[in-house]
Specification:
Oligomer: single chain
Order of helices and strands: HHH
Number of domains: 1
Number of helices: 3
Distance between the termini: 51 Å
Number of strands: 0
């Protein structure tokens, strides 16, 4: 049972990239969940929030696809970060909409 330490990457490079892409999705989920729950509780339902939610979803899927499909290079890391930055901006924009509407 001790042959599989948690801090050591196991498997092929593609498997390790897929595992990291999954972790990225899970890491961002609580941020979105908190924003969506806050908006729902406050009764805030605007088309802008819907558009931002779709933007976050598309950026997350694109980030994950780049992470899983393309090999690790400086360019692919930059592309992945660009999609992550889009998500961060959308999260912040959602927070501003919620804060100003509440």
């Amino acid at each position: 049972m001790a042959d599989f330490p948690g801090g050591v990457a196991e498997g092929t490079p593609a498997y390790c990239r897929a595992t990291r892409a999954h972790a990225n999705c899970v890491e961002n989920l609580p941020i979105y969940a908190a924003l969506a729950l806050t908006a729902a509780v406050a009764g805030i339902d605007t088309p802008h929030l819907d558009q931002l939610a779709v933007t976050i979803l598309i950026a997350q899927v694109c980030q994950s696809l780049v992470h899983m499909i393309l090999p690790e290079t400086n360019i692919t890391v930059g592309i992945r970060f660009s999609f992550f930055a889009v998500q961060l901006v959308a999260f912040l924009w959602m927070a501003v909409i919620i804060a100003t509407a509440a």
